[in-house]
């Protein structure tokens, strides 16, 4: 009977192992699904819509083939279409029946050169891309894009884009019972081997009675001493004992059984075993609600903003090394560019003049992007300066889809306050310049603060601003020291006056979750030195900065020096009992002129 059970175990083991191996080989089927994309009407760009990439589940592997360098980038579909408005392109989408269709799209607003030729776009390096790839001849990119994102494919922007492309998705062809079948078959095989050995052993022990043989001779005792005297060590049997034979046999049997089971068990990957459902931990309810009326996505993602800020820092650092204002203008605008241009002028003629602080390249501690699909679009960022270990707040703006993001304002973050701002993946709406819902409209903020600087507590706006403002105290101390120094030599022949006005740069204001706003503005401070008599002149021999910027050493009418303050405020809602708080500031010389 043991032989029967051993045979049954062998048969079942063979069936189970064969079924498991068949599931992993001949019955498994393909592991991927590929959709070929062909573009008949050549164009310099191909836009593969997110609906095509997401038409099958799983990560997407995109492949394009053409001679030369192949470029690919992905981003929001709306951003890509806006960028492509200046050029022809092929748009790959899904048809009504789910098939892939391609349509040629003509340029809506092409840029023409002086001779009437269309100016081609350069795809590499745009701030709109969330990521980009470049490879020669064959490009393979693994992405996982949602439906609202698309993939842009091109060559160099002039030559035709690749016309042979494909998208590949993985197919879920897991065989969860292959592993158990193979392992179970291995165990049954081991059981069958054991049963077979036991059957053989039982058969040998249960043989019938043997025939009686001839009488055995009488065994004589052996005298050990005689044997030792003859030089022998004793009688040694040529046959091993039953205990020795049994133990050795078990070892020889155990080795192949363990090897077979281990081989089958280790030959199966994770998808060959049943997957238990993961334990579901309760997810916290959302603590941030998208404000009513805010439907647009944030202008930039955290990764995108970090890459943009790195580009700005690198470009400005290169401009600082050569005092190149034109190079700086590729990444700076507004007040940030104006102050750096003035600094370059001074450093060119005054070797001892210090450079302005570098744009920080540390961690982005806070990002507040504007939730807006059009242009211009902006974001605020708080970045740690690795050199000084201090935090700086930056305002960055992109004027149109084809322009780089440019830094417009930068200041040292000084206020230790907790702002109730939306997370970066939600963003914030821009507050209108004339908004009546804030304690003061953004367009009036700079003028009101300028009045407070000049008039202090006597200003009609003083009650709106916080009493703890280190910048106002710094301005007051600097003016007092400058006036005292001037009075020592020029009080009898001239006058020194101070004035503060709103800067020319438009405010940037993004809403907070408590109906307030963070507002970036500029304020101009002027110092005017003028003679009090017609016989007197104002000399600036001892002021190399004014002398360099004006190109004059003296003037009968006097000189006016302008400093620009870059300021960031938190402006609470109209109904709030809070005051306007100065979050950060920086002050640099802007210009010097002969007084008219």
TrEMBL record:
Residue spans with biased composition (Low complexity)?
277-291
Keywords recorded for this protein, A-Z: Membrane, Transmembrane, Transmembrane helix
Membrane spanning stretches: 177-200, 252-273
Under the heading InterPro entries, the entry gives: DUF8094
Q: Where is this region: Disordered?
A: 276-300
Question: Pfam families per the record?
Answer: DUF8094
Please report the stretch or stretches of sequence annotated as the DUF8094 domain: 298-592
Protein name (Swiss-Prot/TrEMBL): DUF8094 domain-containing protein
